[in-house]
């Protein structure tokens, strides 16, 4: 039997790091996972799962600013950025899935992801479409988060790739992202 050895982890960086955002129900989790799956080495980073790592005292952000939930929002973003950089250093295409609708949150990601500037993908279906999607899935949100659409359109308008995916399949949305970025999936 061959002796186990530590092998090098790092490789050439991937062609991109993606940050997929949109309001709840916009399809960002489904699209982000499908986008990561299009690469020979792709990692899906679900920021909600990072929030769930806080097993005591975890506070989810709400519609009104609150110090502790907002601090944890930036903590999970920092952890997503660190994880993204680790994957990217190993040649894995990271795809971060997070609700990023405010400019300070986006700027924090841009400052925290150090390997390369993340390609922002904003999924922007009509809020009524997003609300209907929320009502038809297991992961039902109690609150109506459609007000985040107005915040997103005023705070980060003109940033990244905006896609109205209301009438697109997941595959069509992923194909549009790759096409508009000029990246061929592997």
Topology:
Layout (H helix, E strand, L loop, with lengths): L17 E4 L6 H10 L4 E5 H6 L14 H23 L3 E5 L5 H10 L6 E5 L3 H9 L11 H9 L5 E3 L6 H12 L5
Helix pairs in contact: 1-7, 3-4
Write a short abstract of this structure:
It comes from Actinoalloteichus hymeniacidonis. One of its GO terms (molecular function) is kinase activity. This protein has helices spanning 28-37, 47-52, 67-89, 103-112, 127-135, 147-155, 170-181, and strands at residues 18-21, 42-46, 93-97, 119-123, 161-163.
Please describe the biggest sheet, giving its number of strands, its sense, and whether it closes into a barrel.
5 strands, parallel
CATH architecture assignment name: 3-Layer(aba) Sandwich
According to CATH, what is the class? Alpha Beta
Q: Unreliable stretches, pLDDT < 50, 5 or more residues?
A: none
**What is the CATH T-level topology?**
Rossmann fold
- Sheet with the most strands: spatial strand order: 2-3-1-4-5
- The H-and-E topology, N to C, reads as EHEHHEHEHHEH
What is the number of helical segments per DSSP (H or I, 4+ residues)? 7
Percentage of residues assigned to helices: 40-55%
Query: In percent terms, what proportion of residues is strand?
Result: 5-15%
When the domains are counted, the total is 1
InterPro entries: P-loop_NTPase
GO molecular function: kinase activity
Organism: Actinoalloteichus hymeniacidonis
Keywords: Kinase, Transferase
Which keywords apply here?
Gluconate kinase; alpha/beta; P-loop_NTPase; kinase activity; kinase; 5 strands; 186 residues; transferase; Rossmann fold
